[in-house]
């Protein structure tokens, strides 16, 4: 038994990446073409590594095609694999379920799309491999399909291909729920999962893996993205993560409490950017920067709004080599004495700041808010705060970000009021 395969998922080809036009200077075309370029990189990797087959664990597309160009592009890449002798086995997930994609194109003969009616098995007899899978018939699948998957084929390396949230993952809708015990009991050697966009090796024996999505699409999908290159030999399974993203997203939180002047601030920002990029010159880096702490820089920002953001963007321009786009700069600074005094107040403003402190210190408090009605949380937010597009609040970090936005607005208003009185 000796073969090699790639395991990828959540390509989201032609994901719309809404809202980019709001950012002046954003590399819009490069960002929107990133999912296509990542797929091309996946195919290049498969051909260069001479893999025997490729597994795609759902959400190839982000939504129904606006026209046939999306489908034709994917088909073109599958033709490249066919010419290179690479088989492809794929299931459809919640984003590209049969009930979602209305337009259809016949795929080349090397591509097998598993049925949405029942789980089925495909065997590669020369390799002694059996692949089991089932596609989503529509966007929402509420039941556990694992018990209905076929029994393992004796004498074969058995692979389960499944789009699932398992027992639940933050920021991901609950689809085809199951658990590690059910997967293990099935007796397969490898579970190729999809749906969760963060890479996770769930279990080593059997090997259960979410490879993550192929290309990060926004600031909440940070870090390297790609696929798993898997080699199976008589000695066992060897797996290697292969980054394929052409745009890499970063979130940098910089505490500038000890920074007193712009020169020191610029040095801190430059050092943080260089460390985040880690010498990577191959791709575009999209960075969201958040400035925190109790700092005298807040006075400068109050006198000249936008100063700190401009300095961050200037520091990114000065980097030698790496291509960096600063997607957003969030200033969350407060004066050293002001915040403590305000937090002690016995009013709604003091309550808000104490709530922020609780969220920062105890992640469980943020999780609790996700279980409460959204209106109850928004009632605590000042009316001046511009609510972001992700106001659905699907994970704890978004709760913290929203409350930090509220705190920044409140402290800025108090500062303006104090300056007006003087």
From TrEMBL:
Residue stretches making up the Calcineurin-like phosphoesterase domain: 4-198
Glycosyltransferase listed as a keyword: no
Gene3D superfamilies given in the database record: 3.60.21.10
Source domain of life: Bacteria
Keyword tags: Hydrolase
PANTHER family, sorted: COMPONENT OF ATP-DEPENDENT DSDNA EXONUCLEASE, PHOSPHOESTERASE
Protein name: Metallophosphoesterase
Species name: Ectothiorhodospira haloalkaliphila
Organismal lineage: Bacteria, Pseudomonadati, Pseudomonadota, Gammaproteobacteria, Chromatiales
């Amino acid at each position: 038994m000796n073969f090699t395969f790639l395991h990828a998922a959540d390509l989201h080809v032609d994901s719309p990446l809404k809202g980019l036009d709001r950012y002046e200077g954003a590399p819009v075309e490069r960002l929107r073409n990133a999912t296509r370029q990542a797929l091309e990189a996946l195919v290049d990797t498969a051909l260069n590594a001479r893999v025997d087959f490729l597994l795609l664990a759902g959400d190839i597309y982000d939504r129904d095609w606006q026209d046939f160009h999306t489908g034709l592009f994917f088909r073109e890449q599958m033709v490249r694999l066919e010419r290179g002798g690479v088989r492809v086995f794929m299931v459809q997930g919640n984003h590209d379920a049969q009930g979602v994609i209305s337009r259809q194109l016949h795929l080349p003969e090397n591509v097998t799309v598993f049925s949405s009616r029942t789980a089925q098995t495909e065997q590669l007899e020369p390799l002694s491999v059996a692949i089991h899978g089932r596609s989503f018939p529509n966007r929402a699948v509420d039941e556990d399909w694992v018990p209905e998957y076929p029994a393992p084929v004796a004498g074969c390396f058995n692979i389960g291909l499944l789009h699932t949230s398992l027992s639940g993952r933050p920021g991901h809708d609950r689809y085809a729920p199951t658990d590690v015990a059910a997967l293990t009991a099935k007796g397969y050697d490898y579970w190729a999962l999809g749906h969760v966009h963060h890479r996770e090796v769930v279990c080593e024996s059997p090997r259960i893996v979410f490879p993550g999505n192929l290309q990060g699409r926004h600031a909440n999908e940070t870090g390297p993205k790609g696929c798993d290159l898997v080699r199976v030999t008589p000695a066992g399974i060897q797996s290697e993560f292969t980054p394929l993203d052409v745009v890499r997203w970063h979130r940098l939180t910089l505490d500038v409490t000890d920074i007193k002047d712009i020169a020191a601030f610029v040095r801190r920002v430059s050092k943080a950017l260089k460390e985040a990029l880690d010498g990577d010159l191959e791709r575009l880096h999209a960075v969201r920067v958040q400035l925190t702490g109790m700092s005298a820089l807040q006075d400068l920002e109050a006198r000249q709004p936008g100063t700190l953001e401009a300095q961050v963007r200037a520091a990114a321009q000065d980097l030698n080599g790496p291509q960096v786009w600063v997607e957003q700069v969030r200033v969350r600074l407060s004066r050293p004495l002001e915040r403590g005094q305000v937090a002690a107040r016995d009013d709604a403003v003091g309550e808000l700041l104490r709530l922020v402190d609780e969220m920062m210190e105890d992640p469980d408090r943020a999780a609790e808010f996700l279980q409460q009605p959204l209106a109850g949380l928004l009632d605590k937010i000042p009316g001046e705060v511009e609510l972001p597009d992700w106001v659905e609040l699907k994970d704890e970090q978004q709760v913290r970000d929203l409350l930090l936005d509220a705190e920044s607005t409140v402290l800025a208003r108090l500062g303006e009021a104090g300056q007006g009185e003087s």
